[in-house]
Amino acid sequence: MTHSATTESRRARRAAPSEGRRKSPRGKRRWGRIVLLTLLVLLLAAGGTVYWLYSSLDGNIKDVDLDKTIGDNRPEKLPTSGQNILVLGSDSRAGANAALDAGNVAGARSDTALVMHIPEGRTRAVAVSIPRDTLVSRPACTKTDGTEVRSAERVMFNSIYSQVGAACVVKTVEQMSGVRMDHYVEIDFAGFKGLVDAIGGVTVKVEQDIHDSSSGLNLTAGTHRLDGTRSLQFVRTRHGVGDSSDLGRIGLQQQFMVALLAEIKKQDLLGSPTKTYKIADELTTALTTDSDLASLTKLADFGRSLNGVDPSRMETIMLPVAYDKVDPNRVVAVEPQATQLWKAIRSDSAIPESAKKSPATGG
After folding, report:
1. Residue range 142-168, pLDDT digits in tens
2. What is the dihedral of CA 348, 350, 352, 353, to 10 degrees?
3. Are strands 314-318 and 125-129 parallel, antiparallel or unpaired?
4. Contacts of 247 by beta carbon, 8 Å cutoff, 6+ apart
5. Going along 215-285, which residue ranges are E strands?
6. How confident is the model at residue 20 (pLDDT cuts 50, 70, 90)?
7. Which of 94, 147, 192, 211 is at a distance of 20 to 30 A from 277, taking alpha carbons?
């Protein structure tokens, strides 16, 4: 063999291992992880909570065009960098939700309603719960199919969602508060359960035993780790706490919200792409937002702006209400506390202690 042929043979042998390494399963797995991490493009922080979301989930998010549906008859935007977000939990029993409660029930209602106020600086938050049994003045609204619905008095707040739709709930909250909602976020029954299960449960501490035959929740006083099913029972329990009204469970809902945000924030989601994808899939499938948030890119930008909010600094307040004089099973906003509360939020100022006290407590 000539010297030239020998040299070429050696070169070929040196090249062979390199090609083998490029085709090795280990190399493919490493490359797969790099691709997966690259595709986790969304950083969504709600009250300091961090999610990395897979970019292909963008199409899961449903949206409501508030500007088109409500029109221009809305309060002015906050003249600061603060934000106001209406968060609704829908109690629809349709589809996957039917198995989670009492079976198929027509329509849906806003089972939970929170006005989240993020003051200028975005390092803290205030959550104002609106009792579902509150009697309100519903403004004239337009349904998504274009049907006009006249205004009405003494309408139960949680019925507006099923009667007229999400945009009318936003319009009603804006009319009663004078506060412009910058964004709208809704999550349904099945999505809530799936999200809790995806993060491995949420830890809560209860001060006294809870036994609610209606929701099925039975907890002894102390600390408990709740899965998705028991978490739903926890936030829906009303007969096992206080006076068995909606007011009693608002405290449980607020407690759980803070615990949920804290749980997600402390988890190393970036370190577990599989878990991250599962959480993202559950969340985006169940999520409905206003049109300005209905994409992963927009959610990412908004989320990053809230990354400094610490759940432990979130203040939870119930809209001050009193039992209705005509129907004691319903409540109405009480004055001057309600006006003081909404004024503080409109001006991005501290909420007076008097505005945090409600004659009807549900205790």
Report:
1. 988 889 999 999 999 999 998 999 999
2. 140
3. parallel
4. 131, 133, 318, 321, 331, 358, 360, 361, 362
5. 217-219, 222-226
6. very low
7. 94
